[in-house]
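REQUEST ID: PR-0412
SUBMITTED BY: lab tech R.K.
PRIORITY: routine
TASK: structure prediction, single protein chain
INPUT:
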Amino acid sequence: MTLSRYLLKKTVADLQKEGGLDGGLKRTLGPINLISLGVGAIIGAGIFVITGQAAAQYAGPAITISFILAAFACAFAGLCYAEFAALLPISGSAYTYAYATLGELVAWIIGWDLIIEYALSAATVAVGWSGYVVSFLRDFGIVMPPQFTASFGQPVTLADGTTAAGLLNVPAVLIILALSLLLVVGVSESASVNGIIVVVKVAVIVAFLVFGASYIDTANWTPFIPEPVEPGRYGYFGILRAAGVIFFAYIGFDAVSTAAQEAKNPQRDMPIGILGSLVVCTVLYILVALVLTGIVDYRQLGVPDPIAVGVDAIGLGWLTFIVKIGAIAGLTSVMLVTLYGQTRIFYTMSRDGLLPPLFSAIHPRFKTPYLSTMLLGLFVSVVAGLVPLGILGELVSIGTLFAFIVVSAGVLFLRYRQPDLPRPFRCPLVPWVPLASIVACLALMSGLPADTWLRLFAWLGLGLLVYFVYGRVHSKLQSRRA
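STATUS: complete
OUTPUT:
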């Protein structure tokens, strides 16, 4: 088989036909609906979990600068996503975009990489969810054994003051299994329900900002950029590394791109939805980071529930209850969305023949990809129960940044190869915006540690093995072009 066989592409016309543009989904979503969708998908573990972790380990109070750097990278990538979302409004996300521009092999690599973005994202959120649930239960005198609320081998402090090693994060395992069961039965979230969830999450964050602002001690902001103690830990390089880590906080804006086929006016509404949700969330992230590091010394925030630590420091019991309930509810909805998204990407890949048929098998009663959902739930629950939060967050960030680079490169490629395609939305200033996206994402990736890069390469290497053993043999596109 020659190299050209691995570069076979799906035509844009075929993909648009798959998307059912004629007589497909109704265009009912306006710009407010799309911004709400983006905010609902973005606000989750990033603001409730990763903010404290990155401040404690890498940037200190300067975590606010890290959020701004990550937001710029997202804005450039978001414009590229908007062009593809309007042109190819079907499931599959970056996998589908790569199939249309860079060929089957690259599409497979991205599809495999998206497991890091979606599945491991759900695992990361589950660990944060566990931290808030454990803290919430503790408020009512219910104390879970520390060994069963921490990842395997993670040091924990017992009630008698001694130190032990974590065995399994049981709450994280249970929530993933429970949500997977829900997805098997079938979960439908309308734009109005999502809007209610967004209002609740934003209201909780605003309450924290309003009441927490009066408890800020500016001494906690000095020095704003801590002196580096080792490469990547504080100082300017620490800010860059934190930006790469908290990039995870912005994952979800690409969920807006999946709604392109339901947008009333994608030429106008898609960029408003994507960039509007990024602006709203960036402002909230910066304000939360400032208040949180002003209330509590940043070195105390390296926990799964940093917002809860900040609220506990304030000492307002009723606010503690509200914030923790809001965090638990918000994190639950994010896990549901990411698990759902991963099963649908598997479904698309399976229908292309690159994954076994079981990943596209539909339950006769519930009409959901039940086998795929159950397998995914088992995999993610094991990862959430055993792998530490820091490792998960960095893997999700580097996997997502890699996917964004491919999407940006795809815009450049398709503009060059098929410049006359009718594009409902055109990314502005091509080639400069896609190039800026690629450079910004590479810069953030450079701030991540070497072992995270090694884990990424190892995962992609495993993916290539699966492709050459199974995917290329069963590819439907390969068989049609043979």
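NOTES: Confidence is low (pLDDT under 50) at residues 21-25.
REVIEWED BY: pending
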